# Entry
Amino acid sequence: ALLCGSIIAVGGYSYLNYRNFGYFGVTPKLGLTLSTKTLRFVERLPDEYAATRAALVSARNAALLEGDHTGTMYIWSLVPELEAITGLEGPELSGYMLRLNLLLIRKAPLAYLQDAVWAFGSYWFPSSGELANLSSSLLQLVWALIHFLLIGGFFLSFVLLIGAAIHINLVRT
# Structure
């Protein structure tokens, strides 16, 4: 029931986007967003995409020197230049970038998976910036303990719920 409900909800939303805006999906920016996971190996784009590759590498390298030094959000400052290079805008540009990113993922699947796992880990860890912790190591430690206790409690509840459901099904049979 949950799977069918999700498929109907996401499929319906995607269909509405297709009918109203001309793209089938939940966001018209999928190709651009996927660029945040392929930034470490954009150099592997073939020569037929040389202009785009040069722009991607240049913007990525500049972004690595700024902010949090991960460069992951480099693509968003590059959109106007990509529009000029490709002559595409909006969903068409994102579709172009989706094709390039899928090509990159085929060329370097393990590098892509490493970035995806890193993103998963960084999502589940608490923020460690100075603003989030008021520049206090003690406050950062306390916040991390609270954070992991809450997440651990959530996962423990999940495991217990699954275990109870399995136990009930076994008792009934």
Helices lie at 2-21, 30-34, 50-64, 74-86, 90-107, 109-124, 130-133, 137-172.
